[in-house]
Amino acid sequence: MEIPHLENRWDYRLRRESCLVNLYPHPNTLAKAYVDIVKQWEWKTFTIIYENNDGIVRLQELIKAHDNSPYPITVRQLSLSGDYRPLLKQIKNSAEAHIVLDCSSDKIYEVLKQAQQIGMMSDYHSYLITSLDLHTINLDEFRYGGTNITGFRLINEKVVSDVVRQWSFDDKGLQRSANLSTVRAETALMYDAVHLFAKALHDLDTSQQIDIHPISCDGQNTWQHGFSLINYMKIVEMKGLTNVIKFDHQGFRTDFVLDIIELGPMGIRKIGTWNSTLPDGINFTRTYSQKQREIEANLKNKTLTVTTLLSNPYCMRKESAVPLTGNDQFEGYVVDLIHEISKALGFHYKIQLVPDGSYGSFNKQTLEWNGMIRELLEQRADLAVADLTITFEREQAVDFTMPFMNLGVSVLYRKPVKQPPNLFSFLSPLSLDVWIYMATAYLGVSVLLFILARFTPYEWPAYSDAHGEKIESQFTLMNCMWFAIGSLMQQGCDFLPKALSTRMVAGIWWFFTLIMISSYTANLAAFLTVERMDSPIESAEDLAKQTRIKYGALKGGSTAAFFRESKISTYQRMWSFMESARPSVFTSTNAEGVERVAKGKGSYAFLMESTSIEYVTERNCELTQVGGMLDTKGYGIAAPPNSPYRTAINGVILKLQEEGKLHILKTKWWKEKRGGGSCRVETSKSSSAANELGLANVGGVFVVLMGGMGVACVIAVCEFVWKSRKVAVEERLSAILHE
């Protein structure tokens, strides 16, 4: 019949009748807006809640866009009974915080109200409402909850305001109530449809004469101007209550703009636009800094729940004679840190200990987290502030701030016991081989000097004219040995060589003794004053090469995860050793590992974070860090996924770092509080006494002295006996000869 047909409601058909024009955007085009904003928000997972099958049709493009993603999405239908709490509880238990809600505008408030009743309207939940009538719903009850409730609006706010001002009604009450919050999308589209029809009809009437005559629905007659009027509608471009109205040749609406609206403390407001003509149609009018200021303003005077665990010196119970409650019962590095952050951002906090005392590890059998990570995922806590290591696995589950402390895995081991000095430590500056070579050189030089003194004519004996007796050469073998030992000991004797050859031997020997004695003296002080401490291990590689010393780590901690997931062969071998060791080398707390090292007497080493090792070695002087760090990582503050406060906390941490307050806090709790610095005092005392030599250091010299004196006495007795016997024999022979 060629009667033009205008629609103002959604229609899923991809092809339309030739006489039909629909002012409502096509569902596939609207779905592109949903896809763009989900990508802009970087939602990895989300849950779609729909009312009926029409919702699946409207959102099919959003579902298809997620097909290639490794992260799953969930699609759930609202109950017909009107009680949505069981469904919402299931979504809450799945730890899903991103919701796409597709339902009639009459049910939006009730769904959000029941979500609020079960705790799904927190700062960490985000709702994308597909209805174009979100602006007409009274959401004042949710304005201050911090929940991100976002939707789209087809109506142009400024145009509606202008039109409302131009309207004149006899009913003044209707005039007062005619505002943006009461204008639905279908109403605005009906208004635009009437204007579109009127404009197209006017243009058609201008170009040709319009004949109007009755047409029966049962007849075969058609209106001759029907297709012409439809074509005029398709080529008309006008601005109405729903922005620019423009169609393609099939009657689909094109080149339209949607307002992105969000619920804030002041109500519904526009935060951006989406343009159907652009590849990435999202354009936020609110800047990033404005958004952060709004988040910080929303954070002020809020009370956040902070989960932590007892770990020295990060969080400890205060030593007090009276019972303490609340935050007053805790002290430590992270307690001071969260206090500084709360002062900067203006929020309050409540510290609570994690029930199972765990940092947070993922169980691959049950697919569940424990510890502080679980507290965040189940939203029983807003922040996890502890010596919590930032790892890839944890980063996939929760959000982390920038590190407030950098560290690495290292080895805690018992200090080696100082070895008592050797009685003959004065021999240590030279090796045994050198001592043997020196003795050989001494004997060789003595013999050579004796031979040359006999050989050279300038050392031959002469005859005395007065007595005619032969004078023996002064370089006998014993005298040569005495001359050589005197030179070696930097002493002299009462005879000197006269011949050039013997003087050459003496000069070279003196040069040799000068070098050897100088080298010996230079090394002697170090060997006499330094007590050696021999350690069986010097690095993690030394641990991996042996099996006598057991080593372990905190069970379920990031250190154990580092070795478990490492691709380095040395660390893989260490992990296999730790897993197979019986009894278990893993501990439930770091304190237990430190205790095992202290009591192990060198039979156990504990792998833990370098900062914790630094704290322990500041107080337990029997323990030390062995080797350097095996990796580099950091401690961060964890928050539930998509926490709006992470950026604000990052800014405070960066400011504290630049002002040096983080270093001040570390010095306070590592080197000053709770016995810090005691080992440094002991080290300084031992350093000041390093030059004092005891009897244990030089006792060998006294032994040599006493031994030498004893040998001299024995030789003197032997000489006396020998001489006495010789004299007695000579006297007897003389007596016999005289008889």
Overview of this structure, please?
The chain starts with a strand and ends with a helix. Among the domains are: 26-153 and 256-286, Rossmann fold (3-Layer(aba) Sandwich), CATH 3.40.50.2300; 156-249, Rossmann fold (3-Layer(aba) Sandwich); 425-529, Helix Hairpins, CATH 1.10.287; 693-729. It is elongated. An 8-stranded mixed β-sheet has the order 4-3-5-6-7-10-11-12. The chain has 25 helices and 27 strands. With 739 residues, it is α/β, with parallel strands linked by helices.
Number of strands: 27
Percent strand equals: 5-15%
- How far from one another are the termini? 182 Å
Order of strands, main sheet, comes to 4-3-5-6-7-10-11-12
| Main pleated sheet | 8 strands, mixed
Give the class-level CATH name of the domain at 26-153 and 256-286. Answer: Alpha Beta
Output the number of helix runs. Answer: 25
Mean pLDDT over all positions: 84
Gross morphology is elongated
Write down the CATH topology of the domain at 26-153 and 256-286. Answer: Rossmann fold
What structural category characterises the helix and strand content? Answer: alpha/beta
